[in-house]
């Protein structure tokens, strides 16, 4: 299992990708809020509730990983889809995959991108799906990271 970073980390420290030049990099961290419960936070004011499996109202870290993948695919596909379907199209990306508990990894994650393309003929539908697939493969950082793997480091800041 990959190590995890224990202290707040900025996007710039996580990736060599170019950070937006118009704003400071977003700082991300998770704070313990109870027994096996954390709140993930960003310097932009976003929050997500995280907890163990079965804790009501909380996402598990694995669920957040899956949601990040689905959302990244959706955001990556949004421009080519809206260009062809208009700004008000509906889309749902479902993602599933069971963990291998022995090795503590997800050996496979499966995404299903649900779209209504009934207004398109077969040829236009196929062209759009190829374009969307290429867009996701090109710009979905989460999917690209999962497919290629990544180095994760862990350090500690402790009061002694």
From TrEMBL:
This is OsmC family protein. Residues 1-23 have a biased composition (Low complexity). It comes from Nocardia aurea. Pfam families: OsmC. Residues 1-27 are annotated as: Disordered. InterPro entries: KH_dom-like_a/b (IPR015946), OsmC/Ohr_fam (IPR003718), OsmC/Ohrsf (IPR036102). It comes from the Bacteria. SUPFAM superfamilies: OsmC-like.
